[in-house]
Structures are given as structure tokens and as C-alpha cells.
Amino acid sequence: MFAVEISDITKTFDDLTAVDRLSLVVPEGSVYGFIGPNGSGKSTTMRMIANILYPDSGTIRVLGQQRSGTRSPDRGKLIGYLPEERGVYRKMRVRALLEFHGELRGGRNVTAEVNAWLERLGLADRADDKVETLSKGMSQKVQFIATVVPEPKLLILDEPFSGLDPVSANSLRSAVLEMRKRGCTIILSTHDMGEAESLCDSIFMIFRGKKVLDGTLASIQSSYGSDTLRVELEGGASVLGDLPGIERINDLGQVQELRMAPGCDPQQVLRTLLGRARITSFSVVQPSLHDIFVRIAGPEQEQTAVA
Amino acid sequence: MPRIFLIAKRDYLQMIRSKAYLVGLIILPLLFGGGILVLPLTSRSNAKDQRVAVIDRTGVSASAVIQAAEEANRKVRANGPFGNPGMPRLIFEEVKPEGGQATQLLSLSNRIRRGDLFIVLDISADALRPVGDPKQERIRYYTNSGGLVDQVSLWLPAAVNDGLRRVRLVQLGVDPQRVAGVLGDVPVVSMNLVSQDPITGNIVQGEKKNSIQAGAVPLFLVFILIMIAIFGSAPNLGAVAEDKMQRVFEMLLSSASPFELMMGKVVAAVGASLTSSTVYIIGGLLALAGMAMFGLAPLNLIPWFFAYLIADVLMLSALGVALGSACATPQDAQHLAFLLIFPIMIPMFVLTPVMVQPNGPLAVVMSFIPPFTPVLMLLRQALPGGVPWWQPWLGLVGVFAWAIATIWVAARIFRIGILSQGKTPKLAELAQWVLQD
User: Fold this and answer.
1) Cβ separation of A90 and B246 shorter than 8 Å?
2) Splitting chain A (307 residues) into consecutive groups of 10 residues, what average pLDDT does each group show?
3) Neighboring chain B residues of A81 at a CB cutoff of 8 Å
4) SS3 per residue for chain B
5) Global confidence as pTM
């Protein structure tokens, strides 16, 4: 059963094609990570799933219902949406704001649910304060609560952890995982590839409006094969110049990732390196999501696009 | 609760709890009350006695003219601030004609400039002869007082003529004792039309027209309507632009449609306007009852007042929400405020002709133009004589149809405006948004 079924949708803004003939299915109960460079079409896709924007062509089914310009009565109740550009009525008091959003999303007697979430995210003592007095992290937690009261079946989070300190980010991350445990399907976009790898069951990458990756992390990585060498050696990147068979070097500081050209023999690379420096670690690995992202959307791709 | 009313409830509570609303609620009566308070103060400041020099070139008219003018001055002052505000007590002195006429007038004019004199009244030698050419000036007065409305001109010419008539009558041999009786005024009273009671069939005598009922009450009603409509609708413009800048709408849009959002704000504006007007109407009725003038209260017009107010606020607040949503910043919204006030200010320019001829062609045509209907039709209804019964109903249908059309246009702008970023669109672009699917 799919929570979201997107079929061949296109969305244009004047001359710009933001989403181009995109198809995607998000299984129920999964955490689906949306990745892609800024302006690639992630937020537009999420807005279309949330029924805020409508595709020019193609169809979207969410929780079995076809999305359209009209609003079904339970629309807000089924879907929680946290936009990238967050804003709430800053003059309202926290509890009143959350009750307003909860009722607007179709909830009834949401006070108990609001109180439970305020307690859960450490905001119980700020419930009667105005939103404008909260820190950014607290304000972001309040907005998260506004998307999960009443409990949705589909949660769409557009960069939910951006700008948060590690403690606040952890707190929200555990709340997201709790929602998943309760059976909620979660779509989240992020620029943090480590976060996408650790949180998401599946990854979808969009680039210039088109789908370029879709699947589990393992399946995506295996499609690229084990073409990466991860090495630690004395001298670092300075001794890696002109290595035969190496297409690209990704200097991570203490560790360097080397991408091998097709047909390159890792043993030959190891022998060459042994002649240049003392090696402390050498392994043949699948590319990281970060590396895959850069391969797809790196500067050379941009240059290709410009050319 | 339907989402429109949830949004309306939140916006309504926020609006009526705001300082701006509460201050506006107090300021509005002060604007009216202040004007009334200023009049007695002005009168007091002008209460100093003033001197009038009378040059009588007929040689026989001065005392009669002065007597008539003093009587008129007393009456004008006794009429109170509504009759002739601030008219001072005038002390008349006869000045004999001497030397060159121009030299004497220059000397007296200089006394006026110095503040020694208020008026110089110059009665020509042929003033007592029967009037031949009405354009020939036989009596002149000089003063540097008056401004836009020369208060003296409202009563002094009649008083001077009254004095001259007394002299003429005496010259014709009428007993001076009987002159006052001959020239005495018989009151002429303006009455409302006689009507027939639709239930009993009895003929109901028209009541004496009252200047407050004829002028002040209609003006009060339309000014209250205009002010409340503006105070109720205009805040939406800036508030929506502010909310848009703070990115409030996108989260709300996942729960409510743009139309629900917009209508919630419009309904809140209607609610706030009804709250203010209810406070003022109840306050006004209590004030009239306290002054034993409850009979002047136009109770039959109160339902019309509310109907027109609702239509006006629906139109203006929907337009305000739409324009606010299109603006990139609250500052841009302020620049567009004139578009909101424009439709309601135009009727202000024709208030005088409509009050003079409430059933004239201009008044009738203007009052059927929907944006102007609330103000002008209500004004015509409130004036003595009223309007044919079908006109307010037709006007109301027109104005509500117009309001629905305005809401439709506003919703088309709002749905695009709230998610648009960048610069504020031009009017041509707004028109494109309206036509865009």
C-alpha cells in the first residue's frame, strides 16, 4: 500500500519547469528522504503532495485520495506539513496557537494532545508565553507540534532540522522517529546526507526538476558499485597527485576518498601509494550518499548544464 | 466549526484585542464630539464686544438702521452656537460723513486693521429711494473678518434693510409706533409630508422639520458608516502583508484553502465592524434618550445601516486582503491603501448636492452605483422625504452582487499572492492573476 503515488506530474512557473514528468511512490509507514540541490524541485513536489500547489499535468494520490484543487473535510487531519519557510502567528500564546492549528487541521478537543507534545518536547513551562518570546529552536518545536496535532497519517517535513543546535535537532529527530513507530509515513527533505542515510528507508533525489535517484540507500549505492577507495595515509591529499586510474579525489581531511575509473585495479593503486607514503588504512567501499550527490549535482554537472 | 469561522474567530479576537482597535473605538466619537465641543470654545474666544461705525449719507437713517441691527445681532447671538457661532456683541456708533469719502474710508479701514473697529457700514445718500436697479450698490460694509463664510453677511444686510424700511414707512406717514407691528416677522415653518398609516388608514400629520433631524442625523449616520467601514477593513491590508512577510500562510494552507483563509479574514473584519457599530449605535441611542431627544433616533434606518455596513466591509476587506497578499512588504501595502479608501471617499464629494436634492438625478444615479450605494442611499433614506420604497432594495441587491464579484476577484488575487515572492506586482499583473486559471 502506498501513502503517496505520484504519476508523471509537471509543474511550471512562467518559463521555469520546476518539476518535470515526475513519478514516485512512497510506501506507507516509511521514512522517505527527498534530497537535491537548492531550487531542484523538492519543495515544489512537497507542496503539491500537501495540496498547496497543483500540478499542471499528471496526478497525485495521497492516502488513496486523488489530490485536486478542492479541499476534502479531513484534508488537514490526514496530512501534517511543515514548510521550509516557517512562520506562525508570533503574537499568539503557544498553547492557543497549537489549539488553533489543531482545530484547523480537523482536530477536536486537542488540548490534551497539545499538552502531551509540549511536555514531550520540553515546552510545557512556555505554554502560556507568546511565540515571539521563544528561541528559534523552541519556535521550530512549536511548529513541529502544530503539524502533528491531531496525529496525521502522512507527515511532510521540509528541512525540519535546518538551523537547529544539536540538542534541539536530536529532540526533533527522536520525535520524528516516534511518529514513524506510530505508523505515520514521513517524507522529509534535507541537505544533510548523513541525516538522510541514518533516518531514511528510501531516498529520492531530484535535480533540475527530474528524478535522478530513487530507492533504498543500499540499492542506490550498489548501482554505483564499489568504485571508491577510502584511504588514510601520511601526507594526506598532497601525496595523491597524478595517481593512475583515479578520476577524482575527495579530500575529507584525515581521510581521502578516491574514485576509480572503470577498469582500474585497486591493488595497483595500493602498490603505487605504498611507494609514496606510509598507509594507515585502505579500503574498497561503495560511494557515500554525499559522494553520489556530488557526482550528480557537482560543479561539472552545472557546467555541463550551462554549456 | 467550519474552517472559515475558526480563522475568523482567531482574527476577530486578535483584532478587537489590539490597541489600534481600542484606540480607534475611542477616537471616532471624539472626532464627532470634538467638533461640537470646539464650537462653544470658539464662541467664547470671539465673545469680545466689537465696534461698528455707521456712515449715514442719507442723514436720517442711522438711528433706525442701528436699532434694527442691534435687534438682529441680539437674535443671532441668542440662537446659540448652531445659529451663528462666535458672533460677538456689536456696538454701533454713527460717524458723520466728512471730507473726501475715500480719505474717510481709508482712515476707518486703518482702524479696522488696528483692531479698533470690526465693521464700517457705509449707507449711500440714495439708499432710501425705491430700488430701481437691484445691482446698484447703495450700501457697503467693510471688514477684514469672515474667512470662507462671512457670518455677518448672513444677517446684517436684512437688518440694515429693515432699518431703512422703517425710515421709509415713517416718511410715508405711518405712525412710528405701528412700524414694529407692520415689519414684525411671522414664523414660516418647514414641515415633513403628510402620510397615511398603512395599518389604520389614518392620516398622519407631518411633523415640523428639525434641523438636527434634517441634517445632523443623516450626516452622523453616513460618517459613522464611512469611518467604521474604513477602520474595519483597512487593517486587513497591512496585517495580511505582515503575515505574508512572516511566512505564516504556507503552514495554514496545508489545512485550509486560500478561499477559506481569505473569507475567514473578511468575516473577522465584518465582525469587528459590527461590534464597533453596535457600541456606537447603543451609545448614540442612550445619549439621545439622556437628552430627551430619543424621537430623533432613526430607528427604521438601523437595519439598513447594518446591511450597508456589512456590504461595504465585505467589499473593502476582501479587496484589502487581496492587495495585502500581493504586497512584498507592509510598506508596499501602505502605498496601496488609497485603493481601499477611494471607493468610499468618492461619495463624500457629492454629499452636499445629494443633501440639497436627495431625489435629483445626480443623487439617484450615484446612489445606484454599487460602491457608492451604502453611503449615498443611506444618506438619501435618512433625509426628510426619504426615497421610493423600491430604491433601497434595488440598491442593496446591487451592492451585494458587487460585493460577491469583489470577493471572487479578491480570491483570485489572494490564491496567487500569498505564495508569491519578490517585488509587489503592478496593477496589470494583478489583472493577469485574476484571469489566470
Assistant:
1) yes
2) 93 90 95 94 93 90 75 66 88 94 90 94 94 91 93 94 88 93 95 91 94 91 87 88 86 87 90 91 90 81 45
3) 251, 254
4) CCHHHHHHHHHHHHHHHCHHHHHHHHHHHHHHHHHHHHHHHHHHHCCCCEEEEEEECCCCCHHHHHHHHHHHHHHHHHCCCCCCCCCCCEEEEEECCCCCHHHHHHHHHHHHHHCCCCEEEEECCCCCCCCCCCCCCCEEEECCCCCCCCHHHHCHHHHHHHHHHHHHHHHCCCCHHHHHHHHCCCCCCCECCCEECCCCCCEECCCECCHHHHHHHHHHHHHHHHHHHHHHHHHHHHHHHHHHHCCCHHHHHCCCCHHHHHHHHHHHHHHHHHHHHHHHHHHHHHHHHHCCCHHHCCHHHHHHHHHHHHHHHHHHHHHHHHHHHHCCCHHHHHHCHHHHHHHHHHHHHCHHHHHHCCCCHHHHHHHCCHHHHHHHHHHHHHCCCCCCCHHHHHHHHHHHHHHHHHHHHHHHHHHHHCCCCCCCCCHHHHHHHHHCC
5) 0.76
